[in-house]
Write a structure and sequence with these properties.
The protein is built from eight helices and twelve strands. It is of the alpha/beta class.
């Protein structure tokens, strides 16, 4: 299954803004094992001095570290604090996690308390589902192939944002907003809000073809994940079916954002 990283999109946007002289300097750090897919300076994240040296003169750190290496963020944050970094953006990008305490979501949520303990200001970006990524067979959302599955009844209103729009938003607010509007805040952004049922109906109207829709009970998703903790598809569909709504979006902080809609990113057969 491909990984839904926002990393490359954010890097491209930052480099674009650097060319436009909005940003003075962009430093890209990567682990040795990621060197084949990411261009940047190789750093040993387990070595505080290595990270500290790489972050000298950096004002803002944006972490897009993968879920398999989330534990490294604490060490990176400590080194960033010692290097004089003024703001840390943890690898959150997704749904609201502040009240979660268990599993992968709980692990991500825990970084906030760790940053507070370090005294390192942070900004968290909650973006919802990647609207430009999930429409494929590996997520049981093969819209182009005409067959889709959804957890629960499919009526849950969900926030969606494309990774390009996320990158645009992140770069804009970090370079245009004053520090007091960023420090120790969780910003909620979304390009579109739809239920899966609404998305399927909109798609059917657009192409004039019916989709074969399977709705999976939450109890079945729970059973699948309990039997196989590596069943990420069951896990995601459960998360989407039970997600909390996004209150009070912060879209207004980027007045000219104009993000794309979900339908803009669904492939047509």
């Amino acid at each position: 299954m491909p990984r839904p990283s926002s990393r490359d999109f954010i890097i491209r946007q930052l480099l674009k803004d650097k060319l436009a002289k909005v940003i003075n300097k962009v430093t890209v750090l990567t682990r040795q094992e990621s060197r084949t897919t990411t261009q940047g300076d190789v750093v040993d994240y387990s070595n505080d001095q290595s990270v500290k040296a790489a972050l000298a003169g950096v004002d803002v750190v944006i972490s897009t570290i993968s879920t398999s290496a989330l534990g490294l963020q604490v060490g990176i944050a400590k080194a960033a604090k010692e290097a004089g970094v003024k703001l840390f953006v943890p690898s959150e990008f997704g749904g609201v996690k502040a009240e979660e305490t268990e599993g992968l979501i709980g692990e991500k949520a825990g970084i906030r308390n760790q940053l507070k303990a370090l005294g390192l200001p942070y900004t968290i970006f909650y973006t919802g589902i990647y609207s430009d990524f999930i429409w494929e067979p590996s997520f049981n959302l093969d819209v182009a192939g005409g067959k889709v599955s959804v957890g629960g009844d499919g009526n849950k209103q969900l926030p969606f944002t494309s990774r390009t729009d996320i990158a645009r938003y992140v770069s804009y607010v970090l370079t245009h907003l004053p520090a007091e509007q960023l420090e120790n805040r969780a910003l909620k952004l979304f390009g579109d809000t739809k239920s899966f049922n609404e998305i399927f109906q909109d798609y059917e109207t657009k192409i004039g073809k019916k989709l074969e829709v399977t709705r999976i009970p939450i109890s079945e998703l729970d059973a699948r994940f309990a039997a196989n903790p590596n069943d990420i598809v069951a896990y995601l569909h459960k998360v989407w079916a039970t997600a909390r709504p996004f209150p009070n979006s912060d879209n207004h902080l980027f007045p000219d954002w104009n993000p794309s809609t979900v339908l803009d990113h669904i492939p047509v057969a």
